[in-house]
Amino acid sequence: MARYSRPTSRAEALATLASEGGGARPLVGGTDLLVALRHHTVEPSVIVDLKAITDLPDPLVVREDGITVGPTATMTDLATHPTIRSWYPGLVEAALTVGSVAIRNRASLVGNMCNGSPAADTAPPLLVAGASVTIASGERERTIPLSSFFLGPRRTECGLGELVIALHLPRPEERSSSAVRRLTRRRGVDLATVSVAAAVDAEDRIVLGLGAVGPRPIVTRIDQAVDLADDRRLTEVLDEQLRVATPISDVRASQEYRSATIRVLAKRAVHAAADRRTATEMAS
After folding, report:
1. CA 228, CA 249: separation in Å to the nearest integer?
2. Taking residues 59-79, what's their average pLDDT?
3. Domain count of the chain?
4. 182 within a domain of the structure (yes/no)
5. What is the pLDDT of residue 187?
6. Which residues make Cβ contacts (< 8 Å) with residue 85, sequence separation at least 6?
7. Which residues pair with 61 in a beta bridge?
8. Do residues 146 and 99 share a domain?
């Protein structure tokens, strides 16, 4: 049976993680970790509860140039925060699809990223927002783009004896917006079969974030302006960008079905983001 540690400082938590090597697992919301413990897919020597640490970044800090999200911020915190709802509507849409209300009240956004799932609902909108993460060890801190953080299924740049202590989102450009579209096998609580986030800026340049169509979440950018009213041209541009996707066949869907679906969802997400941008402009 795993031991339980409840440190009150970041230094204490990092020291415990380092001393246990690969045997320690940090705990914040626990919505993934507790399931893994129950099914014995993870059997740590010690569980390091981070909720009592007093020197971690605050859950949500809003600045003029963006937002910093601490490890204890939950999906509900994100979905109900007025600035996040205004600046990152796609992220709010994604956060509201995570589990049930009870799960969203506990699930940590930072923890969701550290889980390293290729199908993580919040990863695609964070990628299109240009998010970065700060990783701390006992000796130093480093900040890297979220696009470099994911290495593969359940693998990230957060190594043994390290903690992700913050996630940073730059403020979106003026007259830009975002949206998320996803497909699951059933309504209600289910993992995404395919998910797409799209951001559209004032010049109709597009950024796409893709989930469940590769070994890690993917971001791809269309640097030239695209006439969104030209359906044929938009389809051509999106098809070119979606070549980065490498879906597989599994219990949720076949490779062929995912390949077809992602094209549909990408176009829907782009139009939804553009429509949201227009609605915001008309309201202001």
Report:
1. 31
2. 97
3. 3
4. yes
5. 63
6. 79, 92
7. 68
8. yes
Give the 3-state secondary structure of residue 6.
coil
**How high is the pLDDT of residue 282?**
83
Cα–Cα distance, 222 to 206 (Å, whole number): 5
Same domain flag for 45 and 113: no
The last residue of a domain, from among 170, 185, 201: 170
Distance CA 22, CA 159 (A): 9
Report the C-alpha gap between 126 and 90 in whole angstroms: 9
Alpha-carbon distance of 271 to 228, in angstroms, equals 8
Residue 209 predicted with pLDDT over 90: yes
pLDDT band at 189 (very low <50, low <70, confident <90, very high): low
Asked if residue 207 belongs to a domain, the reply is: yes
Instruction: Please identify, among 137, 170, 203, the residue that sits at the C-terminal boundary of a domain.
Output: 170
The pLDDT, as a whole number, for residue 188 is 56
Whichever domain contains 11, its CATH number is 3.30.43.10
Total length of the chain: 284
∠ CA 99-104-105, rounded to 5°: 145
DSSP E strand stretches across the chain: 3-5, 24-27, 46-49, 60-63, 66-69, 132-136, 141-145, 150-152, 155-156, 163-170, 177-183, 194-200, 206-211, 218-222
How many whole angstroms separate alpha carbon 153 and alpha carbon 145?
Answer: 18
Give per-residue pLDDT as tens, 83-103.
999 999 999 999 999 988 999
What is the pLDDT, as a whole number, of residue 2?
A: 85
CATH of the domain at 237: 3.30.390.50
Query: In angstroms, what CA-CA distances link 93 with 43, 69, 204, 269?
Result: 33, 17, 21, 11
Query: Are 42 and 67 members of one domain?
Result: no
Q: Which two structure tokens, joined as six digits, stand for 166?
A: 């913050």
Within a domain: 55: no
Q: Confirm whether 121 is domain-assigned.
A: yes
- For residue 45, the enclosing domain spans 3-49
